[in-house]
Amino acid sequence: MLTSTKIPRIIGHRGAKGLAPENTLVSFRKAKELGATWVEFDVKETEDGVLIIMHDDDLDRTTNGKGTIINSKWSEIKNLDAGSYFNSTFTNEKIPTLEETFLLLSELNLGANIEIKPCPTREKRTAIAIANEIKNKWPKNLPPPLVSSFSMESLVAAKKVDPNLIIGALFETLPHDWKKIALEVQAKTIHIDHEIVNKEMINEITHEGYPILTYTVNDQKRANELFDMGVTAIFTDFPWKE
């Protein structure tokens, strides 16, 4: 079903989240160093519309800042320390912009799964901004990215901006009408929690022609079990070279 990009079996989750501060440039470098050929990361939008690499809706867990992203301007966010929470050796690591991340991916020759992670009420707006950024600034030397989200509204909005986007539908549990949803968002891949997948579910999804990507798998034995059952790729906090 996928024709324009080849998904590797091992994808670094938020870079190499288990070994470096998540969703930072140093984390992407670490994933590359460990042998990953792709990384996954989350994108949201500041109050003033700057696209940043960030998972949470607020700043508290991974930075020395406080408050919500949606109410914070880039001028405040760009100076925050996004590394110390993980380890003092990463002090003053910054939250990167999406544009900065594209430049690093190009330098490292790293492919990407870009997750649209909108702040509440920003589902369409953030998706449109991300799709435009990909359309205009995605490095030509890299394979097309995979664009995923738990927000089906975001996926529909992104696809309208750029019909060439490769879409991945993200689920915590597999809804009974997953096929209908996948068609509506024009998904090419299905992403699901590895803890709930079983052989029957994998057969059902792959029978329809969808590759399955499972998150977050930090045990190589479990990864091999999933591959044996028919899973295409796994997201891991500790990426390794295949």
TrEMBL record:
<dbReference type="InterPro" id="IPR017946">
    <property type="entry name" value="PLC-like_Pdiesterase_TIM-brl"/>
</dbReference>
<dbReference type="InterPro" id="IPR030395">
    <property type="entry name" value="GP_PDE_dom"/>
</dbReference>
<dbReference type="Pfam" id="PF03009">
    <property type="entry name" value="GDPD"/>
</dbReference>
<dbReference type="GO" id="GO:0008081">
    <property type="term" value="F:phosphoric diester hydrolase activity"/>
</dbReference>
<feature type="domain" description="GP-PDE">
    <location>
        <begin position="8"/>
        <end position="242"/>
    </location>
</feature>
<dbReference type="GO" id="GO:0006629">
    <property type="term" value="P:lipid metabolic process"/>
</dbReference>
<protein>
    <submittedName>
        <fullName>Glycerophosphoryl diester phosphodiesterase</fullName>
    </submittedName>
</protein>
